[in-house]
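Quick log. Single chain, no ligands specified.
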Amino acid sequence: MSRRIQLSDSSTDPHFLVWPRDPAHPQNIHNNCFSYAVGDVETINNYADRTSDVLRQPEPGDAIGMPAKIYTPAHGFNAQSIRTLAIMTGLQEVSVSEYEPLPLPERGQRLVAMVFLTGQDLATTQYHWLRQGPDRLFTAHIPEQGPSDRDVRGRLIRDPRHSYFSRNQQGPYFFLIPEQGLPLKMQPPWDRLITNLHDQRHSPSGQRAQAAIFNEMAALVDRVKFPVVKAKLEKLARLGLQGT
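-> predicted structure:
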């Protein structure tokens, strides 16, 4: 979402009200819409080890050993990939037709939603997660702004199906999660491997070093569960060795 979104305090969700409003606050820098909507307290507040630019903010799949940064290059960065990773992370997708009322979470659960925004290219394509508060309003974390209970047109988000975020939006897709949220922190050794891969982009020994990293990544991936991802990593490792 390239357009700035109006920030307001109409929502009475305590999570929304206590969230820092300063875009430069470390909690805003180290979190995103996904951790805001889905993350537990540990994920949101314990970000001291998320110092690398490439790992600063949690993504679907990080917590279960299949990071989005590894899964989506093999399967495409699209709504289906993000939904698949969300379900593997522990979110329970619920089907809601256009005319049905929003589902009422059972005790101990809450409702979140994901809208997928297709841009002109990969760099401008993104997902956007929202959480429903006790007041039934939805709020979301906006990059470089902070939390908001409004869509791009400045309307309160009472039902994401009737909200506008982008001309090319897909969804929303709805999920139930535990009321306390879910752990989303990336599991080792993926944090080390992805950071090292990012750091090797401009290294003189980059191709050979990247090939070794891809090989180590491929060894972590279950061929039965993730055959396309494993094949992609193995191919990247071979290409890296061939280029040295």
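The two ends are 40 Å apart (CA to CA).
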